[in-house]
Fold this protein.
Amino acid sequence: MPELESAIKALIVEALQLEDIRPEDIDSEAPLFGEGLGLDSIDALELGVALKKRFGITLSSNDPAIKDHFRSVSSLAHLIANQQKA
């Protein structure tokens, strides 16, 4: 899963145009929102679109676990891995 996490980190930096952050600066377990990376709701939308395009996953705002999926790079990696297995 480290390769998938690295790909997600690179996608976050690229899709959100984070100029002062490199993919290797992002901790896989750190929160993406608030005190962690500091992303906001607009970033979440943009990231969701980028994840759909890059990994072909399905995201639904009606999913009660959506906040858990976007908690960290690690949780996104688990979501992608599980959807790609199905």
